[in-house]
Amino acid sequence: MNTNTIQRELPINEILHGDCIEAMRRMPANTVDLIVTDPPYLVNYRDRDGRSIQNDVDASWLKPAMAEAYRVLKQDRVAVCFYGWSKVDKFFEAWKDAGFQPVGHLVFRKTYSSKSRFFRYQHEQAFLLAKGRPPLPKQPLGDVMDMPYSGNKLHPTQKPVSTLASLIRAFSLPGEIVLDAFAGSGSSCAAALLTGRKYIGIELNAEYHQAAVLRLNRVSGRIAKRSSPSFPRPVDDTCVPARLKANYCSAV
Ligand SMILES: C[S@@+](CC[C@H](N)C(=O)[O-])C[C@H]1O[C@@H](n2cnc3c(N)ncnc32)[C@H](O)[C@@H]1O
Q: Candidates 21, 47, 53: which one to mutate for ligand 1, based on the most atoms within 8 Å of Cβ?
């Protein structure tokens, strides 16, 4: 099967509504170029407004989801997977069982704390996971990054697009396919589109799925406007100054 046929079978630039294990099972193996995903942290999270996250208590989905993520990722490529530090053992076992090799660990520094107990908890974290032997980036990012507050308007644990965009630029090329199997409000998908990549998002919760679909429609409308002759801004925003980039990503 050639690349065009495989791409036709993929839900390119779509946010699917449903269980990511089922959805990924329908995708051919070795087809996505990068995974950037933020699964439930297994902490039974509830925000001040009472919003919660499906599958945040029971880990039965974790191993099958990571096995499917590994299968659909191309050989010699990477996945960035956020995780909850208090359940690191469960995540690690699932990644290793799937076949992933941890090749980096990221700490995202927040200016606010999500909780205060033994510490004021002020960071998020993710592993960089390899399938095979991915090439090293020409200009590696630092593994401690700032994570501005997203505002959580669309989702209780909404990640900022600017941070995700840096990771997508570092580990994929324009035109490549980025998968987020736990898409929430579609932050990774928005970051993929804004950096000139294609996206595939999967979200179980109907309300967050709807929010993500509407958001991605807004983003693609904005990109279409931007690429019109009256608004000449590049689709891949590598040359947008950092100060402007932060504003322009946080607005979506
Ligand atoms: C931590 S949140 C992701 C938030 C996202 N990063 C954002 O910026 O909006 C995890 C999401 O995974 C979804 N989810 C949980 N189990 C799932 C499954 N089996 N398949 C697809 N999505 C799932 C939840 O509904 C939740 O929205």
A: 53
Res 69: pLDDT: 98
Dihedrals phi, psi of 192, to nearest 5 degrees: -65, -50
Task: Measure Cα distances from 138 to 42, 146, 171, 172 in Å.
Answer: 35, 21, 10, 12
How far does residue 202's CA lie from ligand 1's centre (Å)? 8
Cα separation, 188 vs 165, in Å, equals 8
Domain count of the fold of the chain: 1
At 214, which CATH number?
3.40.50.150
Task: Find the 231 Cα to ligand 1 centroid distance in Å.
Answer: 34
Q: What is the domain range of residue 42?
A: 10-250
| Residue 146 token pair | 């700032």
The verdict on residue 150 lying in a domain is yes
Report the residue among 55, 147, 189 best suited for mutation to probe ligand 1: largest number of ligand atoms under 8 A from its CB. 55
Cα–Cα dist 187/219, whole Å:
11
**Nearest atom of ligand 1 to the alpha carbon of 157:** 4
Model confidence band, residue 31 (pLDDT cutoffs 50, 70, 90): very high
In a domain, 4, yes or no: no
pLDDT value of position 230 = 77
Would residue 1 count as lying in a domain?
A: no
pLDDT digits (tens, 9 = 90+) for 135-145: 999 999 999 99
The rounded Å distance from CA 38 to ligand 1 centre is 7
